[in-house]
Amino acid sequence: MEYIVIGAGAGGLVVAIGLAAAKKKVTLIEKGLFGGDCTNFGCIPSKSLISSAHIAYAIKHGEKWGIQPESTKLQAIKALERVRQIVTQVRSHEEADTLEKLGIKICKGSASFIDSHTLQVENSGNLSADRIIIATGSTPKVPSIPGLKETPFLTNETIFELTQVPKSLICLGGGPIGCELAQAFSRLGSAVTIIHHSPHILSKESPYTQEILENSLKEEGLDLAVNFEPVSISHDGQNFTVVGKNGEIRTAEKLLVSLGRAPHLDLLQLEKAQIDSTAAGITIDKYGRTSQKHIYALGDAVGAPFFTHKAEFHGRIILQNLLLPWNKRLDRTPIPRATFTDPEIASVGLSEEDALKIYPAKSLHIYRLPFSEVDRAVCAGRTDGGIEVITKKWSSKILGCTIVGERAGEMLAQISLAMEAHIPLRKLSNLIHPYPTYSRAIRKTADKWLKEVLLGLLKK
User: Fold this and answer.
1) Torsion over CA of 336, 22, 133 and 330, rounded to 10 degrees?
2) How far apart, in whole angstroms, are the C-alpha atoms of residue 188 and residue 53?
3) pLDDT digits over 109-164, tens only?
4) Of 118, 110, 101, which Cα lies nearest the Cα of 20?
5) Where are the domains of the chain?
6) Which residue from 253, 370, 419, 456 lies 20 to 30 Å from 13 (Cα-Cα)?
7) pTM score, two decimals?
């Protein structure tokens, strides 16, 4: 049996490498850079920049943590060089020659369907296979704001090509990408404005979360232009000007468009293979199969959420379904998310608002614990934020969780594991956490079941 994987990003690489390890005949098609969006334009460069920006901020504001600022400051231009060096380092493990050594046949070029078993590949002619896996990723959304497309705006796919930090930067969009990069460039010396159409940034997060991050960004000097609906954008050769519906104006040297992503499907000609899709992405069943059962799709190609870890998870499940005589479902594990601002934000499962749409309010219990009650956070001077867990009231079954603060993304894994293993929150009270650690916040939150629910019932 022969396999074709379209796309050498996170999900596609999992499937291709796994098939090769199982001694299957697999061809990997990639038209761009190997490693996909995460390695080249997303997680790796952005988190590298964020780390450098954190150091710069610590040096400049070291007195906040009881230390004196250093006499020399981090050179921002070095931070951008470091980003490119790290991207090159990570991608070296995913390049074509490395993959070929694993037994994967590589074809470079764009692919489009001729029929449900055959692809036309640029520079490689026609290729056929028994199984085809679509892992083509996503591209930045560019809105149809008058004047925008005539300007040299940046996206996450081009901003890391900058050789120096701009004096001023507008981030059009207050979602995770916009907020992460806005804070990073601000800490590296840019005067940054976030333009967002809603009343609050990070529209998918809870009001509690939004307030904490907004206060943090404002304290660092960022301009939050919320309820701002752009009606025109222009560039005079030196600066961008963004005009809002109500006459507001913002100007900056550079403009980053960070308004989300869309599945990258335009070149595939899915209709020739009779593969069902919508504007949101390719339609798949609970096992990752498209309307053509021998063709699978995963990751960003099937739509939101656009997370690398989702693509990897899809890739692992589909790989098992390709190799084993039984099928495993994609839809039984909640997908966590993390926004790597400072403070960090991590969530999994239902928010309080979503839970109330499904369950009666009296059947739920919401646990909240501020980091001011966590000794490690107090020691580190990082008491901003806290943890919020949504549960069924009596069983304490975990429906969702949001953590805002230092190491939130690392802490969330404990909650994700509990949800996957059907462990109620109250049982996490029995888990011994090293003292003092941030994750003790989870144990302290679990302790609340006894006080807030069980003892409350006994008193009645």
Assistant:
1) -30
2) 6
3) 999 999 999 999 988 899 999 999 999 999 999 999 999 999 999 999 999 999 89
4) 101
5) 2-35+94-140+262-323, 148-259, 343-459
6) 419
7) 0.90
